[in-house]
Amino acid sequence: MRALRRAFARRRRFVAALLAAAATASVILALRPESAEPVPVLVASRDLRGGALSDGDLVLVGYPPQAVPDGALRSAASVHGRVLSGPMRRGEPLTDARLLGPGMLTGSGSGLVAAPVRIADADAAHLVTSGDRIDVLAVSPESDTASGVARDVPVLAVPAPARPGGGDGALVVLAVTSDQAARLAHAQTRARLSLTVHRRE
């Protein structure tokens, strides 16, 4: 009788161990992330200097869903001919903030508009990059003095020219208020614009 009880106890411990193992396996399977199909995202096929996008500039690459950047673009046809706000490195994902347009103002705060401003000295304009803060000065042909038109405004982009060497100066796209945009537009018709750069904090 005693031997029978010992055998029954061993079998009960064995069944309990099996049940514990099954419970542990169920927890592990529940916690393991489910495999998901990669999401196609447009990335630069080579280093891009900016300007209008053309065939061959972008390729689709599969990204894990959790790694897809906000605003990532997925259709080459929808961005063909659109203008990059600045250079892109090979393999960098293309997002709406990288294209000239409303997406550029993401994170810039409410009440701002993107204003393209032509700086007279192209070399000076290409010294600044997205994220720099500048003052815009207007120099009238009738005087030797410069007056401030916009102060401490952020640079959104410095687009590459469509044709190298074409036209005077260079475009800089700024995030400004509507009033500042109006003053800048008026100043461009009467004076040559220059800039000074604020030190980055």
Question: Could you give a short description of this structure?
Answer:
This protein has 201 residues and is of the alpha+beta class.
Report what the structure shows.
This protein has 201 residues and is an alpha+beta fold. It folds into three domains: 1-32; 39-99, Antifreeze-like/N-acetylneuraminic acid synthase C-terminal domain (Type Iii Antifreeze Protein Isoform Hplc 12, Alpha-Beta Complex), CATH 3.90.1210; 103-197, no CATH class. Helix content is 25%, strand content 27%. It has helices at residues 2-31, 76-79, 122-125, 178-190, and strands at residues 39-44, 51-52, 58-63, 83-84, 113-119, 133-139, 146-157, 170-176, 192-197. The strands form three sheets. It has a five-stranded antiparallel beta sheet. A two-stranded antiparallel sheet has the order 1-3. The protein is elongated. The N and C termini lie far apart (85 Å).
**Could you tell me the number of beta strands?**
9
| Average of per-residue pLDDT values | 79
Helical content (DSSP H or I, runs of 4+): 25-40%
What's the total helix number? 4
Series of H and E elements: HEEEHEEHEEEHE
Cα(first) to Cα(last) distance is: 85 Å
Global outline: elongated
Strand order of the largest sheet: 5-8-7-6-9
